[in-house]
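Review this:
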Amino acid sequence: MNQEKLNMDKQNQKIAMRVSTISIAVNLILSLGKLLAGILGRSGAMVSDAIHSASDVFSTIIVMIGVRISAKQSDTNHPYGHERLECVASVILATILMATGVGIGLGGLRTVLSGDYGSLEIPHFMALVAAIISIAVKEWMYWYTRAAAKKIKSGVLMADAWHHRSDSLSSIGAFVGIAGSRMGYPVLDSAACLVISILIGKAAYEIFMDAVNKMVDKACDAKTEEEIRRVVLGQEGVLGIDSLMTRLFGAKMYVDMEIAADGRQTLYETHEIAEQVHHAIEKRFPEVKHCMVHVNPAGDSDKKRRV
């Protein structure tokens, strides 16, 4: 079972690295294209959007480092592994994203509050085209990265997916601002920067809170716990569940439970039941790193049953 989990972890790491490499390549091309379109097309919103895309490159590098370090095997100083370092990478990514959003927002706010709209340049049509291309590419990157993150259950890769989505949304804001400017409202190009910054900030907050929850041993969702109960109660010899506790550990999950069994059975027989439950949980839920099962005599557990 341990070798099987090790092979799965290696496969998941390969998937994360492949997706991240593609992400870096796409973002480099896209950010350079948007920067060029923003400068030549005289669009502050497109330049801001290009900066956002450029920050994606750096954040994806953080993702790759986090995935590689968190995949390290347990050692003497870290007997529970290194999975929480993936959460640290997510926190760093969220911080970078928030800083990017604040920087873009302040630039747009200064222009909007200046009141000097007559001197603002009207963006060129190429900036509008660049925004449309960016929306399509970043939305595709969001779905591509999201699918991989769900497959390997990686929080930091999912955070990177939302980074792509925030870039897609910022490109929509840039599109609206550029289009509005070309229709005779040049201030809308700068106003779009404010909208972009808010969207980026929202994504950063959600990434940060998801990472924090996984670092403070938050329980898994109710649906997963209910499925765990169903699997356990389906095992031969299990008469009930006295206690079930789960905790998230980076991209992994720990399960601690007390089950009820016939107290007249031998130690070997109850041990076999516990082993059966243990393997059933780890097989059904690949994200479970370890499952601890304690067996209570059914007669005694009825008196102290908590759940």
